[in-house]
Structures
1.
Amino acid sequence: MPPHIRQFLQALRGSVQDLLPIALVIGFFQVVVVGQPVPDTGRLLLGAVLVVLGLTFFVRGLELGLFPIGEDLAWAFARKGSLTWLLVFAFALGFGTTVAEPALIAVAAEAAAVAAADGAIADLPEARSGYAMGLRITVALSVGAAIVLGVLRILKGWPIHRLIIGGYVLVVVMTAFAPDEIVGIAYDSGGVTTSTVTVPLVTALGVGLASSIRGRNPMVDGFGLIAFASLSPMIFVLVYGTVL
Amino acid sequence: MTPLWQDVLSTLGTTIRDVLPIAAILLGFQLFVLRTPVPHLRRVLLGFVYVLVGLALFLVGLEEALFPLGRLMAEQLTDPALLYGDAVPDGIHWRDYGWVFVFGAAIGFATTIAEPSLLAVAIKANAVSAGAIGVWGLRIAVALGVAAGIALGTFRIVTGTPLHYYIIGGYCIVVLQTAVAPRTIIALAYDSGGVTTSTVTVPLVTALGLGLASAVPGRSPLVDGFGLIAFASLFPIISVMAYAQLSEWMARR
């Protein structure tokens, strides 16, 4: 068997293993708990084949494209030695990947509906879409700022836990002031800003930066950018919901 | 129903549109600021094509197979008729919802194992730690955290207790663990909170939360339906640090 076909088959087997737990859980609950046969088996199998193929391609693409480009960029910025440009890049990456994120658009629309039902803004389509747009920009700015802070932390070697725990304290303080309805949405918004393409890219960037600077350990200093990107939206959505 | 290949094409279109800003930023900085050619340009481009095609197939497959069934199941399991038969009682007890908690935990675990972003971070962590952190070890640790988080989150929706008590309690555990956990794991543990909740987990978990909040008497989807994602991003931090503490403790014995 030619080596690349063998590689592909191995990758396929890996994807099947990744997806097996879902199939088992759904099957078990459908048959044993709900007590009904699985509907539309043909479509289900077809979907499963697509999911397995998709995951296989995605992982291969990570190794060929997203990981190398993230690390190469980190090394190129380190060689160039311009802190300003690196920070501008970090901000653009955080802002640009978040502002168009579909999950964030959905959360912003929900938050606007809550605010309208609550009487905080007028219950009109224009008022709601204005509120939602403002929220999206706020969150995208906050993620841009968070990636800048995260990159600075890697460069300076600041301990991550002080910053993150400081962020938690802010979340707790803001929770006390924010209207109850916004709290759930704000807490959820942390999870929605980090998409499947952003995560590998940002992780590779962080690890690449930490490896390119003498005295930084990629394990201790390289990770953590995602943590900043998921904490800052919570703070900013709480602020947004309180102020407006 | 539209033919499958049309779904694939339109999803591919959406995926490309989502990735476009990222690609523009990368290209802009590469051309105008760094002014260096991309090493192995053709391989990188091929990689991007693989990522886009892979994501499109993955999303269409999920929409075709997993999401309808998952949503249906979330509805059926939270349906008062399944829980009580014809006689729906006035008061409810959280013990009646046992299967919902088990389902929440199981689906949280299973979707996390399949989450592509977590897989990416696990591959990277394995490479950076020179194999000390196993790809599967990290993924299982994160998945157990999500499972515990979703189970507790569904319990909160059923009992209607305030969300912030749980989240602030969780933060306190994270702060305490940070003080004693091995230093090398801390950044990775914080990261794993953010990566668990993406393509696979969010739609299913949101459906479960909203379904549960509309089905349980006395709960409102608007106030009680949210918050499951927050649980799913907080508890992996705790479980990943616990995983590192446990491995360290076992190595010492």
2.
Amino acid sequence: MTLREALLAAGRPSTGAPFPFFLCCGCEPLHLTTFLKAHMRGRLTPTGRGVNVTTGRFGDLAGNIERALAAEGSAPLVVVLDWPDLDPRLGLREASRPGLNDEIAILEEVRARVGRLGTLLTRAAVDRRVALALPAGPVPPWMQGMPGQATTFMLRLRESAASLASACSAAGVRVADSLPGEPYDFRSYLNTGFPYPVSYADALSAQLAALVLPAPPKKGLVTDLDNTLWMGIVGDDGPDNVHWSIDRHARVHGIYQQFLGGLSAQGVLIGVASKNDSAPVAEALARPDLLLDSQSVFPVVANWGTKSASLRRIAETWNIGLDSIVFVDDSLLELAEVQQELPEVECVHFPSDATALLETLRALALRFGRESTNQEDRLRASSLRAGSELASLAAHTNPETLLSGLQGRLTFDFQREAFDPRVLELLNKTNQFNLNGRRWEEGEFRQFLAGPDSVLCVVHYQDRFGPLGKIAVAAGRRVGGALRAESWVMSCRAFSRRIEFATLRALFEEGGVDAVLFEWTATARNGPAREALELLLGPIGDTGLLSLDRETFLARCPRLYDGPTESGTSLPLGD
Amino acid sequence: MTNASNQQRLLSCFQAVFPDAPEAALLNATIDTLPTWDSVGQVTLITVVEEEFGIAIDPEFYEELTSFGAFVKVVESAGK
């Protein structure tokens, strides 16, 4: 992006409240402000929101952070650190006479400032998103050693910066990775106080904006098999004669299998769409030398239909949108067919060249990149497999008989002392069973948790098919004897088990409320939430504050297969 | 490259930096006629013009770049 393009992007008309953030740096923020605005706007495109950036004073990074923390609200912080922020003698704008003991004195000052910054940023990360860029520019030439030598002084400087990064990362600060390209424009720094080349400012801003407003990661990868997951054609060569080992010159396929295994361990869904008969495919996938646990691959769709039809089926099984899926195939023809029929799916060509493959895998990894992997992520594939078994059972079994035999067990957790990223993820990613489609900013949610009247109910579930983990959240505030529900979501993996009704029962019995007021708004996708509410309240329209009292709930709640709730947080639902 | 096309490209630079000013005002703009032409606007404008024309403007001339016409001259003197 050029600076002119950034100015135009940043200045586009916007709607709604602007997204606020602080840009804290010790240099003149100048073009960083423009590029950050442009990249933030780009990431906010679906909402149409503008941005409102607050900068600080030249040469006072710590003070700028302190002022941001003292301001009202919990707007994100973008912190761009450079060597002069750790000691002005490390910059080239400050005039000073070099002394014999400069290096010792500078290292002491750097350690002291690193300590102070670490304290500030760790504090900031408690209730807001913080992105940190580490020093990238050079130190004065007279502080360098022999050509090509890393001096003890430079190593200690880098050690200090690394210790700050490590401590901040552990506290939840998102630390930017180093960027390629020249990070320093001395002419600009001398003339304007802005030390970065325009191209570097653009790249740095794009990276920082991605840390503050990360794109939702893709959820599933569907792979082809022949000449993709392995070398060879399983239908022609046979299950024992497809290869992925280095001695067969097929290591790129082995690397790809390991890559898929790594994604699966992070909770990414892995499926197969292959034009093949199912028997040889099943046999090849069962080979013990496969570098990917075949249990983590689900579903495997092997048939002679189009790949787009297979992808549709897989998306239905996973119950996720096609725009959350990446499809990998070595055939450009198959990729073109899928792209034509399903433009939402991101199609990636599997290259035969080893160098190109590594680049492809690096790019793919970014599509699925997430900050952390929680228990629910790891359970996702197995719970989908269980859900599929449950669905096939349900097709032949009376629903009451099915539910009574599930041995379902629910736990309702009302504690709100600790921030749980999984809870925020559920609130912000659930579309179908969602009371009103509301999305929460992290800082806003943290403030909600600290509110004296706030009520948070997090629902855990497991049954004889296995655990589903945290699958539902209700968030609201006490208003007299009622609970005003601002958000209520349930993962689609937990549908058809009447967990929504058990959640309401827990709110009435354990939450001790006489009525629940729902902030209901219809969205394009929240039909399942409407269905549950209308079963209890009758027709509800498209928006409004709906009131459900205890008597009405008890009269209309479907059977939950357990006795009345006692104190505690665990409710048995099945036999 | 004609002067007219240079002028059009400069105008697009000015429009990006001063989006609220009408085109006619920009063609005759001076640092005194545009309230948003402050020190930040000046540095931004210089960078956008350098980027657009692939030139490096000598900082010695920064203080002389106080009008649209002055930018036309500096671009022409750079051989564009």
